[in-house]
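In response to reviewer comment 3 from the previous cycle, which asked for concrete evidence that the modeling workflow produces usable outputs, we include below a single protein chain processed end to end. The sequence was submitted unchanged, and the resulting structure tokens are shown without manual editing.
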Amino acid sequence: MIDNGIMMQYFEWYMKSEPALWTTVKKDAEKLKKAGVTSLWLPPAYKGASGVEDSGYGVYDLYDLGEFNQKGTVRTKYGTKKEYLEAIEALHEAGINVYADIVLNHKLGADEMEKVTAEEFNSSNRYQMIGEGKTIGAWTKFTFPGRKGKYSDFTWNWNHFDGIDWDQSTMTKAIYKFSGKQWNNEVDLENGNYDYLMGADIDFNNRDVFEELVRWAVWYVDITGVDGFRLDAVKHIPASFYRDFLYSVREQTGKELFTVGEYWNGNINVLTEYLSSIKSEASLFDVPLHYNLYHCSKAGGAYDLRTILDGTLMRTNPVKAVTFVDNHDTQPGQSLESFVEDWFKPMAYAIILLREEGYPCVFYGDYKGIPHDKIKSKKQLLDKLMKLRKTRSYGVQHDYLDDPDCIGWTREGDADHKDSGLAVVLSDGKGGTKRMYIGKHFAGSYFSDVMGNAKYNIKIDEDGCGNFYVNRGSVAVWVHKEPK
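The workflow returned the following structure tokens.
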């Protein structure tokens, strides 16, 4: 018997460094399993340039998982290496897979400056050079003195990068490309070429770089036992790099390594092209679906719900879709802020958790709350929806996405999950009733709404149909429940 999977992103941007996240994860492992979570996406576990306050995306040393005194601290924001490994072990004992957040695009916090010849480029058009080449002071030499060569004696210098955004010699912030280097191809077309994002930008055309990153990844998988990767910022990295990288790491570790990439673009055609280009077993986060949910939540009932799945991976390539409502980048105050409005969160999560398409990812900031912005926990709601996914959301799906203000779908259930099957109705307007088919095997049975829209039961007719009600601006989930 195969149960539905649920991924959870177990962090948010403004999370405090105390208590250490790794100790919290270890403590919460059994509770998460009971809630229906089957995999946990954990934040970057290695030392960042800002030390104990670095979220992990300001990558300094990939080999320092909270073991060496570097950047003013031994531990990372989330704890020590020992605590990290104990958290992973606890999750595995609970039957939960662990996905590591892999940030390979750039490095920050170099140990030494180098003099490098470079040209300045227009930040809005990365193919437009500004002025002549000149010598700049670039923070590009990474020697990791605190680690002293343990695990790897590879040191980084300017040859391993293709650009940077700071000239120490003149204290000038601008985008500089090193002379003789080219921006990587196969990247997003925003700004002409979106290879450069931040810090010292890694040159993926350098063979030494490729071999070192593969060595690191094999070491990382072996030492931590993680089950897969979340790949950060893949729109800035050539698809061919990850194609070869994933092949090499999987071959050397002998592990399947589920992988999902973050390609932040709302255009389904761009995501489809990337999936074709990477030519590897990998999924993508369904960014177009997130934007549909966000825009619907902001429309005040004026959104056409019939189009809620249009232009999404959930519809066009559901096997490769990791669906989500929000994440650490879309939460308030972040660079991609597009936080789904509170009133629409129950409907949004019903869409990703109770449909057959996609692999849903629940956001920690919704599950636990975001104290920084006084956003309250929705744990009670999400526990209910996750339980419904785990126990009821199985079998053939029938869609009724046929009204601009009120849509629904049913699942017939299957023989492996007792009492499985459900009917979902949601409305961003005045609510109403939808007649939907849920299966002739339910004829004569009673269904009740577990979301509190209706206090009465409905009876399924001899044709296997029922009239399922939903309140205004709400979601109803009807399940088989015989009256006492």
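The chain has a mean pLDDT of 97. We consider this sufficient to address the reviewer's concern, and the full set will be provided in the supplementary archive.
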